[in-house]
Structures are given as C-alpha cells and as structure tokens.
Amino acid sequence: MSNFTNQIAFITGAGSGIGRATALAFSTSGAKVVVAEINEANGCETVNQIQQLGGDALFVRCDVADPAQIESAIRQTVDTYGRLDIAINNAGIGGKFGRFIDQTPDDFDQIMAINVGGVFYGMQAQIRQMLLQQQTDHSAPDGTPAGTGHSAGRIHAGGRIVNISSIAGVRGMPMGAPYSASKHAVIGLTKTAALEYARQNIRINAVCPVYTHSAMVDELINTAPGMEERMRRMIPMGRFGEPDEIAQTILWLCADENAFCTGQAIQLDGGMTAG
Ligand SMILES: NC(=O)c1ccc[n+]([C@@H]2O[C@H](COP(=O)([O-])OP(=O)(O)OC[C@H]3O[C@@H](n4cnc5c(N)ncnc54)[C@H](O)[C@@H]3O)[C@@H](O)[C@H]2O)c1
User: Fold this and answer.
1) Could you tell me if the CB of 269 is within 6 A of ligand 1?
2) Model confidence over 214-238: pLDDT tens digits?
3) Coil vs helix vs strand at 213
C-alpha cells in the first residue's frame, strides 16, 4: 500500500461517492485531507469519518464553479497545513439525461462551469501553489533542487494532480452530450498541463471510470425502468465499479513508486473499451 504520511491531499467533491472513498483512502495511507465540497453536511460527514478513524481532515466549503472560491480553498489548505502535495479534482455533476437537441443553453453552461471550469481553475490554483513551494523548499541533501524528482525521498516534491474524467471522456454518450463534452475537455486540460509542468515534476493524470456506485449513478438508474440492467450489460465484467476501486487507482497514480507517469488518462471500465 502507498504511504502518504504527512502529505497534504486536497479533494473536491469529497462529500460523497468516489471523492469520499478517495478521501478515506488517502487518510488511511497517512495523508492529511482537505475536503472541498459544496454540500456542507456531506463534507463534514467525510471529515467526521476520517477523524473517527484517527485521521486529520479539514472541511472547506467550496463551489468549484467559482474560481474565487477555489483560490480561497487552496489558501485555507496552506494556512492550515502549510503546503499542498496532492490535488484531486473530482467534483462533478451528471447534468440532464436527454436528447442532443433538447439540451438547453443553461444545461450546457452549468455542466461546463462545474465539470470543466472546476478542473481548469482548480488546477490553476493548485499548480501556482506547487510552483511556489518549489521556490521556497530547501534543496535535497545531495544538492538536487527540490522538484526535480531525482533525489531519494524527495521524488514527490513537485506535486501530483489527478482529475476525474469518465469513460464518457473517451467515447460518445448518447443522451449525455454536455457531460461527454465536459469529460473530453478534462482529458485535454490534463494532457496540456502535464506537458507544461513535466519539468517541474508536477505529475498530472486523469482517471476515466465507467458506471460506479454513487449518488450520480443512482440518478441515472432512476431515469427509466430496466436502466440498471442495460447499463450493466455494457460492461464486460458484468458489474459496476466500486468507489474504493477508483480511489485505489487514484492513490497509485499519486504514489512515488509511479514517478514516471504523467499526462495519462487511465480507463477503469471493467473492459468496456477493450472491445
Ligand atoms: N459514478 C460514476 O459512474 C462516474 C463515472 C465516471 C465519472 N464519474 C465522475 O466522478 C466524479 C465523482 O462523482 P460521483 O459518482 O462520486 O458522484 P457523487 O454525486 O456521489 O459525488 C459528487 C460530489 O461532487 C459535489 N459537487 C457537485 N457540484 C459541486 C460544486 N460545484 N462544487 C463542489 N462540489 C460539488 C457533490 O456535492 C458531491 O458530493 C464526478 O466528476 C463524476 O463525473 C463518476
């Protein structure tokens, strides 16, 4: 299991589903966790669960569609814990399930503001902070500058970011055009930022899950009778993903053992895109 002792992990949308599972997994691996969430009750519940397990966590109310709130959430993270090592841009919405021609400008704008704007402005604030830390961190004992990743024990000095895309970010999704477009955009942002900050050892990757048990998927299941079975049949493994399975891949992407991996969009789909 990866060891993130005393590292600071900032996670958006960590009040539910994949975000909460990721927050708990980082905490049990030693990280201090910032739960950035628009839903205060659910965000505080995640913090409560972490504390009951003996971990350290902070709730920050944050609407990721508002760049000022993301800036403020990163500032609160640094004010509380002194730095930012890991950021997981997970908050997202499914939007309206409906035909391409029936999606309204409001449907489109809302999903873009949260699913794309949240990741874009989130990464801007996170990368700025990670770069700032490289200027102020001391050099490694062998003289290697912080952030180069060449010195044992300092391989994570640059920073790590994982963005949550979707299998709808690599394939079309009938009845979900704005969602699919937003998740394709997340991969574009991930790859571009990864290229721009590779030399600073800020590793930036994405995960692309297929249907995974969460409030979002329950909403989709409830749109029509028989929907759950139809969704399940699309997945070669014959089942949905579990939030903790997605969380474990996110941790693996952030681990020092995985230090050469950046700019990737990892598909977690029970085999769907293999065919
Ligand atoms: N569950 C799936 O099948 C699945 C598949 C692929 C991708 N994803 C993606 O995984 C991520 C997590 O989804 P989930 O399935 O855990 O859903 P979820 O609904 O359980 O969790 C989403 C969380 O994001 C929060 N959130 C929503 N809008 C926000 C905003 N503006 N600011 C801050 N927080 C906000 C919600 O309050 C909620 O806690 C999303 O980006 C989603 O698109 C989910």
Assistant:
1) no
2) 999 999 999 889 999 999 999 999 9
3) coil
Q: What ligand 1 atom has the least distance to the C-alpha of 115? A: 41
Q: Is 39 in the pocket of ligand 1 (CB under 6 A)?
A: yes
State which ligand 1 atom lies nearest to the alpha carbon of 91. Answer: 24
Q: What gap in Å lies between CA 164 and CA 87, rounded to an integer?
A: 11
Residues with a catalytic annotation lie at 179
Q: What is the mean pLDDT of the chain?
A: 93
Amino acid at 69: Q
What the chain holds in terms of domains, given with CATH numbers, is 8-268 (3.40.50.720)
Question: Strand ranges (DSSP E) for 25-135?
Answer: 32-37, 57-61, 86-89
Ligand 1 touching residue 63 (CB < 6 A)? yes
Please state the three-class secondary structure of 154-175 as a single string: CCCCCEEEEEECCHHHCCCCCC
CB atoms within 10 A of CB 215: 11
The size of the chain, in residues, is 275
- If you measure from the C-alpha of residue 134 to the centroid of ligand 1, how many angstroms do you get, rounded to a whole number? 31
Query: Which H helix or E strand runs over 268?
Result: strand 265-268
Where residue 98 falls (left for φ over 0; alpha for ψ -120 to 50; beta otherwise) is beta
SS3 for 205? strand
Instruction: Encode pLDDT of 117-176 as tens digits.
Output: 999 999 999 999 999 999 987 544 344 444 444 444 445 579 999 999 999 999 999 999
